[in-house]
Amino acid sequence: MVAQVDRDAQVRATRRRQALDALASERDREALLQEQLEEIVAEIDGPRVDADLYARLTPEDVPLVRAALGDVDPVAPDEDEEDLALYVDLDEEPDAADPEDEVVRLQDELTASRRRQDALERYLELLSDEPAGP
Length: 134
What we know:
By secondary structure, the chain is mainly α.
């Protein structure tokens, strides 16, 4: 009987370690998915937000901020809007995947990741409970 209790404790310790590793991996995965989602949303909505913020900056600050963010505008500030057409590559293919579809996919992945984390946390709670007697 003592040997069985020791074995159960060993199994619980191993399962606890495995579940903690899986939970840590899933939390890391969630963080990466969240970062990827934020990047895509920034690509989609960034120009609109930037336009609003740039309008409130001094004209001297705009190119500094754009350069710092890696958003260097090829059009000098004093060029006409018509000149902007010179910088548009009409042959450029759009991205294969619709960014909005990718947002939905990443949100679904985040939801699934959080569900796995919840399940792993409940599993760990159960492991902490005293084993039922035979």
